[in-house]
Amino acid sequence: MKEIYNMLKRENVRILPRVENWREAIHVAVQPLVDGGFCESRYIDEIIKNTEKLGPYYVLCENLALVHGSSDQGVLKRQMAVTLLREPIKFKEDGYDVRVLVTLAATDPESHMEALQAMSELFSTPENVEKVLNAETADEIYDLFVHAIDE
Amino acid sequence: MIRSIMCCCGSGLGSSMLVRMNVEKAVQKLGVSGVSVSHSSLSDATEGAADLFVVGKDLANFVKELPRVVILDNIMDKEELETKLKAEFEKE
Lengths: 151, 92
Fold this sequence. Notes:
Largest interface: A-B, 26 and 23 residues
Oligomer: heterodimer
CATH class of chain B: Alpha Beta
CATH class of chain A: Alpha Beta
Strand content of chain A: 25-35%
Largest sheet of chain A: 5 strands, mixed
Shape of chain A: globular
Order of helices and strands of chain B: EHEEEH
Strand order of the largest sheet of chain A: 1-4-5-3-2
CATH architecture of chain A: 3-Layer(aba) Sandwich
Helix content of chain A: 25-40%
Number of helices of chain A: 6
CATH topology of chain A: Mannitol-specific EII, Chain A
Strand order of the largest sheet of chain B: 2-1-3-4
CATH superfamily of chain B: Response regulator
Number of helices of chain B: 2
Helix content of chain B: 25-40%
Order of helices and strands of chain A: HEHHEEEEHHH
Largest sheet of chain B: 4 strands, parallel
Number of domains of chain B: 1
CATH superfamily of chain A: Mannitol-specific EII, Chain A
Distance between the termini of chain B: 6 Å
Number of strands of chain A: 5
């Protein structure tokens, strides 16, 4: 079975109308992993602290943020979550508009590589990005992620 | 001589791994061999840890002390990476 099925559970893919600010974006993006027991709630605060110190280095391109902290900042088990926002949010004033929050809880530097390859593959094709942004259900988004590599 | 490239981000897990995957492809495409590519956190990015460092522009201020750095405007842009890496290899 492909590793992405272990890394991304269907219940960790959500669609939300909007958030007020980037801090709330991090809260909603990480919460599914807290609920599922994949990280401690302090992982949220640690990522916010990292961002205050270093800036939003995890905003990868237009529409996409790879929200994550370090393994020792409260990660319990390896997992990913995906949150689609109906309205975009900026992580800094002159930054990109972000609508897809991919949250990564990594337990070591290597074992999530396949999941990141899937994400990278998905976002390198503009038609697929459109499909994610226009998805009506979380099921559609889940399918796009888990099938990103074999398509 | 560039024998090692270290890609860095704040935590050394996510963005840096993506850049590392792209650097590995770019190095191969440029036909350069014998280069090891790694990904790590900024705190590991010290002089001597690698011959060349690659970071996104958000972190440019944190690597000013390092001798040889490629700064990426868009860390998902493979063409930008390839162009900048090519320039570095051509300096040799």
